[in-house]
Design goal:
GO terms for molecular function: phosphorelay response regulator activity; phosphorelay sensor kinase activity; protein-glutamate methylesterase activity; protein-glutamate O-methyltransferase activity. The chain is an alpha/beta fold. It has 28 helices and 38 strands.
Length: about 1100
């Protein structure tokens, strides 16, 4: 059984959003809500998000499918390569294939969610790159839903959250773990305040709620000030209820108290009332109509064009019209001064509009050529170019209170009036009509009720609510705030010409003033042929009623003057001569005044219009003043009686005609009603058929485009395959190494020409088993090796021989890249005949070198042995001479100089013996390298060295610390001992004068090497001398004994073994040698 979810929560995420989604659902309870995840997915890989989420939520998780009904306590994940929308609680998928440009999957779903769920929609924006979702959350906000944005500080990629925050519609900015609890509290509070049927008017509200609502509206009006009293009650009620749920407030009076003490919440409530949601070229077909039929007309009307966008929100619609205007200017190459006035009550929205910076998601709402031409892309946003921005003026404006912008060529006010009641709609329609010049255009939203406009405007498009002004009608002055005409104050009437053009007085004003003052005195008004006031002069409070007025003179006259003045006006218009009215009593019997009225017709040739000058002045009863001017003066009592009789006769005839007309209209109305029903039915059928044809045409076009794309892809693939086949054939022809390709059954697939001399192959052998074909090589394990390669996927390398040549054969698997499956094997033959010959010669030379080295070793050993014997003999003779000399003269004191000579000779002999031993060691390094090494254990070697220098260690208090991660190495034991001996003895020799020597010896395994590190705490080596310490006979200090051969030998040994040595030293701290032995 399917249940409707209480709320549907849509989560939009992109880069870095997976972790945020996990965190969100780690804290999500079972709350009868549904969750839909719109994640940007790779089109090339199947998403495993649904499976991965199972570890983070107890809710059921489904990969969304087309036609799937949304159920509570479930999570739905969008599949890759699909757009997803929601209609009547059901998910629908459409493929992205063939859709060019950025795929704003989040915006697409959020728009459908807002349309389908309204106030039950919740939109969440998590981590991601780009701006997808920023347009969608506007739609959710407009529908009365909840918008939550991840705190950018907690997002791995903050671009999507930042763009969402820039829209100004976010209700909460939270970390992912905080969102579920806030949503749960919000939904709970919302349910407590949701009536079964929301009230449509104040009469349906409970008395307590209505009084609180009025108090809230009064508070908004007095504090901000913003007046929402004429907005539809249902809209106001929903917004207040949402804000109460946002704060967890249950009682409307408590919320009123909160508004009284929290100005920020008062501003937030007002912001919720102001639905600042729009988009570029919203309703593309409507803008196409504006571009085709409206822009050319207003642009050709003159050199200056004025456009007013009322309720511009964040400016997208105003800029859209600016783009259309600029395109027309560029196309016609005309210099036209264009000003676009964009106004709104929402100052925050105006701030966004004025900056002209929009998220990159706007790319989906306009042509790429327009985007490139009029926007600058920077920081993942689009900014309006200055040349377009200077065309617009943004300003705050209250349509319900402020006067309209006048003399406009085009006014756009779309989908704003639907939130207001009927009275306010009529009031604003009147203002918009007044603001247009004759022939100007009015562009409304498709949802507006335009019944009020049909009388005075020509319908250009019924579907898109585009109208053209036919004629001027008076504007009700109580439409907006103006000074009130009060008794006792001098008032100059605003003229209809002023209201129409909002400019200076008509040029005839100065002439009329002079006539009134010099010829007549008193006061007067000037009216047109429709009796509409165009100007006024002097003190009029005596003659006109003290009330808020319109522009019709007859409505402004007191009752005693109304009928005679009407008769005088009509007579003056007919005769073209002035008409006067004798003294008429105005006012009560005690304070009344006698008034004389003169009506003078005249024509302004420059304006080509007729006007009537109506002059008033006080006079004594029965006075004949004014008759000398030549005007015809009326007997008011007689003319009034005649006028009344004529009106009664005219009324009788009119009633008879009206009765006849009414009967005809009733009959005609019945016929028209029937005919209209038939037309509506036929129109619906035609519209349905047209929609089906349009849908079919779009589908066919879409299929055709897809087929063209597929065909193009196939053509490209065929070309690639042809080129690849040519490359392979050329490769095979030029490859000197023979190659054979076989399938899983060892049947021949392909071979290179050079393999023919090894295997007797021809083109007709392709498809035959390879073991049925004779070969010219000895390769007995061929079938077994190939079978093993195919089965196990390894590589087998062997050497085989033909009659006169040697080859290395490598068998490796043939792997199909699409599914990583082994589909055969490749057999490659490398001729190594010359290599084998060179290997033989090298082996012979190595054997000869070993023999020569043995001879050299014998020579070095003999020579060093003979030299050492000779030096030992010399040393013995000198010692004997020393003893003899002392014994011959025992009583004679020892000659100090002779003793010094003996000591120097003995030291020189000792050094010479050490030199011979070291030189003999140099000659043995190469021979030791050529001989096989042995497993040498470091610990044993160090103990042997310590034993040989035990006296030196004890005398210098030296400590040797070892740590062998690798205990042994395969190396020449003699050479390794020589290296360690030299490094240890040098560490002692160059010890610090401030501390006893401490030596650390450490081994460690590295990739391809064994590291031997010898570290001491001695005197250290200057950085400039480090590079020269391995030079033969180089000594760091002349004051310290040594031959300068030890480090040279150490480096020579390690290099001969294929390794290297590094040194690191700090003066006063010590030195570290690192020896890298190649394994």
């Amino acid at each position: 059984m399917t249940h409707t979810p209480q709320h549907i929560i849509a989560i939009g995420a992109s880069a870095g959003g997976i972790e945020a989604i996990y965190t969100f659902f780690d804290h999500t309870p079972l709350d009868k809500a549904s969750y839909i995840i719109i994640q940007h997915l790779s089109p090339d890989h199947q998403s495993r998000l649904a499976q991965l989420l199972e570890k983070h939520s107890k809710l059921d998780i489904d990969l969304a499918e087309n036609g799937m009904v949304v159920e509570p306590n479930k999570i739905y994940v969008i599949p890759n390569k699909q757009f997803m929308t929601l209609q009547k609680g059901t998910l629908y998928l459409t493929s992205k294939a063939g859709k060019k440009g950025p795929h704003h999957t989040i915006n697409t779903f959020f728009h459908s969610l807002a349309k389908d769920q309204g106030g039950k929609a919740v939109g969440i924006i998590l981590s991601g790159m780009g701006s997808d979702g920023s347009e969608g959350i506007k739609a959710i906000k407009k529908a009365g839903g909840l918008v939550i944005v991840q705190d950018p500080v907690t997002a791995s990629y903050d671009s999507m959250p930042q763009h969402a925050l820039a829209t100004g519609v976010a209700d909460w900015v939270l970390a992912p773990e905080e969102m579920p609890m806030q949503i749960q509290v919000y939904v709970h509070q919302l349910q407590q305040h949701t009536p079964v049927n929301p009230p449509a008017s104040s009469s349906e509200l409970e008395e307590k709620e209505e009084s609180t609502l009025v108090a809230i509206l009064d508070l908004l009006k007095s504090k901000l000030p913003m007046d929402f009293s004429d907005y539809k009650r249902a809209t106001i009620f929903r917004r207040i209820r949402k804000r109460m749920a946002h704060h967890g407030v249950n009682d409307s009076r408590a919320y009123l108290q909160m508004l009284s003490t929290h100005p920020i919440e008062l501003q937030a409530l007002a912001q919720d009332f102001l639905i600042s949601v729009t988009s570029f070229f919203r309703d593309r077909e409507a803008f196409d109509l504006i571009e085709r039929d409206v822009i050319p007309q207003i642009m050709n009307a003159g050199e200056a064009v004025k456009i007013w966008v009322a309720g511009c929100a964040t400016g997208e619609e105003a800029y859209s019209l600016a783009i259309l205007v600029q395109e027309y200017v560029e196309k016609t190459n005309r210099q036209i001064d264009v000003k676009i006035f964009a106004t709104d009550l929402d100052k925050l929205a105006l701030a966004i509009a004025s900056k002209g910076i929009y998220p990159e998601s706007i790319a989906g709402s306009m042509l790429k050529e327009r985007l490139d031409r009029y926007f600058i892309y920077q920081n993942q946003s689009y900014r309006i170019k200055p040349e377009l921005r200077k065309m617009l003026i943004f300003a705050p404006h209250n349509l319900g209170k402020n006067p309209p912008y006048a003399n406009m060529d085009l006014i756009s006010c779309r989908n704003l009036l639907i939130y207001m009641n009927k009275d306010l709609q009529e009031k604003i329609f009147s203002m918009l009509h007044f603001g247009l010049k004759k022939g100007g255009f009015l562009f409304l939203g498709a949802s507006e009720n335009t019944t009020f406009l049909h009388t005075h405007m020509e319908e250009i498009s019924r579907k898109w609510k585009i109208y053209k002004k036919k004629a001027h009608i008076p504007l009700r002055l109580d439409t907006f705030s103006l000074p009130i005409y009060e008794d006792g104050k001098s008032v100059s009437l605003p003229s209809s010409k002023q209201a129409e053009a909002t400019t200076q007085k008509p040029p005839l004003g100065e002439v009329l003033s002079e006539i009134v003052i010099t010829e007549y005195g008193g006061a007067g008004v000037c009216v047109d042929e429709n009796l509409q006031v165009v100007d006024s002069f002097g003190e009029l409070t005596t003659y006109l009623l003290p009330k808020v007025f319109n522009f019709n003179l007859l409505d402004l006259l007191p009752e005693p003057l109304a009928l005679p003045v009407r008769a005088a006006l009509q007579r003056a218009l007919k005769s073209g001569q002035g008409v006067g009215i004798k003294s008429t009593h105005v006012g009560d019997s005690q304070e009344g005044r006698a008034v004389e009225v003169l009506v003078k017709p005249f024509t302004d040739r420059r304006l080509e219009k007729r006007f009537l000058l109506v002059l008033f002045r006080e006079t004594s009863t029965g006075s004949d003043a004014g008759k000398e001017r030549g005007e015809k003066w009326m007997d008011t009592s007689l003319q009034t009686r005649e006028y009344v009789e004529s009106l009664e006769e005219e009324l009788r005839q009119t009633k008879e005609k009206l009765h006849d007309t009414q009967e005809k209209l009733v009959a005609m109305g019945e016929n028209m009603l029937s005919f209209n029903e038939e037309l509506l039915s036929a129109n619906e059928e035609m519209q349905s058929a047209n929609e089906e044809m349009q849908s079919s045409n779009e589908e066919l076009q879409s299929v055709n485009e897809e087929l063209q794309n597929v065909n193009s892809e196939y053509q490209g693939k065929i070309k690639e395959l042809t080129e690849l086949n040519d490359d392979l054939n050329n490769y095979f022809r030029s490859n000197v190494n023979g190659q054979v390709f076989v399938d899983r059954e060892l049947k021949l697939k392909k071979f290179s020409p050079s393999v023919v001399e090894l295997i007797n192959l021809q083109e007709r052998d392709i498809g035959r088993p390879l073991d049925h074909i004779t070969t010219n090589i000895k390769f007995e394990t061929f079938r077994e090796d190939m079978t093993k390669v195919i089965a196990e996927g390894g590589i087998i390398v062997k050497e085989v021989q033909s009659a006169h040549k040697c080859y290395q054969v490598m068998a490796m698997p043939y792997i199909r890249q699409s599914d990583n499956r082994i589909d055969g094997a490749i057999l490659t033959f490398y001729e190594i005949t010359e290599l084998k010959r060179l290997q033989g010669e090298l082996q012979e030379r190595n054997t000869s070198l070993l023999r020569i080295n043995d001879d050299l070793d014998t020579f070095v050993f003999t020579a060093s042995h003979d030299l050492l014997n000779l030096i030992a003999h010399i040393q013995g003779l000198i010692e004997l001479l020393h003893i003899t000399n002392n014994s011959v003269n025992p009583d004679t004191s020892v000659n100090p100089q002779a003793e010094e000579f003996y000591r120097m000779i003995d030291t020189a002999i000792t050094k010479f013996k050490a030199l011979i031993r070291e030189l003999s060691g140099i000659g043995k390094i190469e021979s030791e390298r050529l001989r096989e090494g042995e497993d040498v254990y470091f610990e044993e070697l160090i103990e042997d060295i310590k034993l040989s220098i035990a006296t030196l260690l004890e005398a210098t208090h030296t400590q040797i610390e070892v740590a062998f991660e690798v205990p042994s190495i395969h190396f020449s034991k003699k050479n390794l001992r020589s290296m360690l001996y030299n490094l240890i003895s040098n560490a002692i020799k160059y010890k610090s004068s401030e501390r006893d020597p401490h030596i650390v010896i450490h081994t460690k395994a590295l990739p391809g090497f064994l590291l031997l590190r010898v570290e001491d705490n001695g005197m250290g080596i200057e950085q400039s001398k480090v590079a020269s310490i391995f030079t033969l006979y180089h000594r760091l200090s002349e004051q310290i004994e040594g031959q300068g051969i030890g480090l040279y030998l150490t480096q020579k040994i390690i290099h001969a073994a294929g390794g290297h040595i590094e040194v690191e030293s700090k003066v006063g701290k010590g030195t570290t040698f690192r020896l890298f032995f190649k394994l």
